[in-house]
Amino acid sequence: MNDTAPGGLVDRYDLVVFDLDGVIYLIDQPIPGAVDAVSRLRQRGRRIAYATNNASRRSGEVADLLTGMGVPATPDEVLTSAAAAAEVLADRLPAGAAVLVVGADALRAEVRAAGLRPVARADDEPAAVVQGYGPQVGWADLAEASLAVRAGAYWVATNTDRTLPSARGPLPGNGALVAALATALGRQPDLVVGKPEPALFRTAGHRTGAIRPLVVGDRLDTDIAGAVGAGLDSLLVLTGVSGVADLLDAPATMRPTYVAFDLAGLTDPAQVVAVPDGKRAGDGAAPTGWTVTRDGAVIRLSGAGDPLAALALLCDAAWSGGSVSTVTADSDNAREALHRLQLAG
Fold first, then answer.
1. Could you identify which of 86, 198, 242, 344 might form a hypothetical disulfide with 220, taking C-beta atoms 3.0 to 4.6 angstroms apart as the criterion?
2. Terminal CA-CA length for the chain
3. Which CATH number is 82-192 given?
4. Hey, which residues are catalytic here?
């Protein structure tokens, strides 16, 4: 239905870099179809990496979790923001320097493994504060971090994800906790390590020697923005945080190269569509059947065809100028397509 390679989208790339939460699994349960999708990539001999902003698990723990779900993985395939943050601090600070850790035990372990000394109180005069997601993080932790930063500690955030996905819906992420501390301090962290910063993606490429990686994620503001910043192609899957409504409203810095409902789009050309970005003229062209018109902030879809083909045209119309307030349908088939895309008809 689109311009992907005949054998599948993945055959255009020599490395696939997956986000985890919302792409491979939700919390600790695999997303339907994810196990089979990764297995098909392994069978094709495609190199794989996992890059996650979640700082609550170490690389080995993540690899064990994936393997337990039926997705074989090794620690060297997993890149976490916790490990990346610890490496950054190890390069900046002398061995054994005190680092106040706000986050889970995994982040403390990464700091210790990097040759630094994790502490919990500002009275220990830490040279740096590193802040990552942890379900037990509370006011007392933020208070100690605030005192340490005010005293001159270098402040590093593993990531600034505002939310994290769950089976019950989005929950507050590390970005929400970073925002609380930033409000108290009146400033932002000195450094953010995780996505949308491009470091994790670039590290994955360097580790594997890949020339053309593809980033697969569920969040426009982290996964896709990070890929755009790193100059890499990306696939947005609609199994996690960002939906089609978010996509239609996305600025150029958060627009993916491709969109699919799930990971089947990696190998099945009928399950993925290229979306226009103003630079790839004609890439998002859909088969005949759909007509999209725009009147101010209102977009109208009529005709019949594949919902993903309609999505490419909707993106083209939405990104052609100004924000979109309403997407409407002028036919029963169009209403069904908008329902499939989780847009009001």
1. 242
2. 23
3. 3.40.50.1000
4. 19, 21
